[in-house]
Amino acid sequence: MSADGIKVLKQKDTERSRWMQLPRDVVIGHDALTHVPAVCSDLRLGRSALVVTGSHTRDLAGEEVISLLSKEYEVRSFVADTISMEVIREAEEAARDMDFLVGVGGGRVIDTAKIASYNLDRQFISIPTAASHDGIASARASMPMEGGSASLDAHPPIAIVADTAVIARAPHRLLAAGCADIMSNYTACLDWELAHRLRGEPVSEYAIALSRMTAELLMKNARSIRPGQEESARFVIKALVSSGVAMSIAGSSRPGSGGEHKFGHALERLVPGKALHGEACGIGTIITMYLHGGDWREIREALRQIGAPVTPAEVGIPDATAADALLAAKEIRPERFTILDMGLSRESAEHLIRMLYEE
Questions:
Q1: pTM summary value
Q2: Closest Cα partner for 110 from 63, 177, 155, 67?
Q3: What is the sign of the dihedral through the CA atoms of 282, 288, 294 and 297?
Q4: Which of 8-17, 18-27, 228-237 has the lowest mean pLDDT?
């Protein structure tokens, strides 16, 4: 069989088989950026690359990646300070005659590279400058739309290069948000199992086991996650990669996205930009764990230890707005059944928000 026969980009499903796409090379550590040319050589992606970065992240790591690759590859750069369909089309045009893409930056930059590469049927390498959510390794991408964000199909990166020195220098708020995103795996899996029992939705026990294990390891090590520490950055990046792999095994974002994510997206619609994605999902995880009858206080304490917000007030959102988001969560991806689709009353929603403040 030739290499062309197994180079899968866009997912090809049949009735009896499904292509499972996973990152091939993952490099995590101090000065990991220096390994980018070797990774590209190992993967034999071609001779030309479009490096997608942001104005700020270009200075943090983008220029170094461009310089390193330029010694052996034809390199062009594209600056994506925002993500929109227009920016993605521009990135696609810039990459049209390039062999592969490299995303160097935060979530918006990596999602831009991810969507553009998927649309062009090219591979891309993920080089995060912060550990703020599991999009660095997953096959999903978040796209701002009118009235909120939409989760789009894409493909996972063919490789991930995470320099812990760069990531440790990012604001701790971003790392804490990434931890909260991982913690939401707990309730995402509970929601998936609920949908299986009530709606007959198929589940993947392997994906659930990996997703839960990732959240449990983070919970056990919550006290060790500290600002500016490379070991903390290393631990969280590994967890984010593990979470992304669980989604690839599942063939969907189910192992890492349930009612807590629907709440987070509803909150973004109501008050855009107030809370980071992971922060909103972390608050939603406390609430949905309570509804599932689990140890929501343990989740809340772990988030506090990490430095993530546990109440709407901590991110400047009125409690009434958070209650509105709980009620509106059922409108987000209505095909995805979660515990927030069981029928909350206004009174119940307000009680759940007050509960967050209880000691």
A1: 0.91
A2: 155
A3: positive
A4: 8-17
